[in-house]
Amino acid sequence: MLIDNFEAFLIAITILTLTPGLDTALVIRNSSRGGFSDGATTSLGICLGLFVHATFSAIGISAILAQSAELFNAVKMIGAAYLIYLGLSSLKGLMSAHAQSLGNESTNQAVGRRKTQSLREGFLSNVLNPKTAVFYLAFLPQFINPESSAFLQSLLMASVHFLIAMVWQCGLAGALTKAKSLLQSPRFMHWMEATTGVVLVGLGVKLMLEDR
What we know:
Number of domains: 1
Structural class: mainly alpha
Number of strands: 0
Shape: globular
Order of helices and strands: HHHHHHHHH
Distance between the termini: 36 Å
Mean pLDDT: 80
Number of helices: 9
Strand content: under 5%
Largest sheet: none
């Protein structure tokens, strides 16, 4: 086995993935906005960000991030600001003259723009989260086999995390899409946008205010 204690790693990373957090809130938000396609695309963006953190961890950049308070705080503020931006975007949509709905985009171009937006939001929310970088720095080395390439092992563990997170998050998106009668209700849509918007703003503010 290339990875030391693979069974322990698998259990730990699965528990981490199933724990509700920013990723869950963002997938729910975008699934309520555009259905399974948007939720799955958001999940893809989130999971692609894992490889960025795995690479940084392997080459030592995360170590610099963890030991430099100024750099840590700078990245933390950027990530927090982006979370607040996402949350405010949701709340702003509630005040617009036209209510959003699932599946009523008039052109393929509009659908493509929405998917691109979901992919970008998922990717940036993950990459700009310094806690993920620090977690990977502390977590991955516990399972690195010193006799093999640390870089390849880091990418392998990120790949396992990628698969588990994609299955879980796409499952959430699918479950929301199945609840079609609820998701097509303008009242439910407004409630979902408002709730997830407030959650995202709250997470961003919490990240800005909490101590390292």
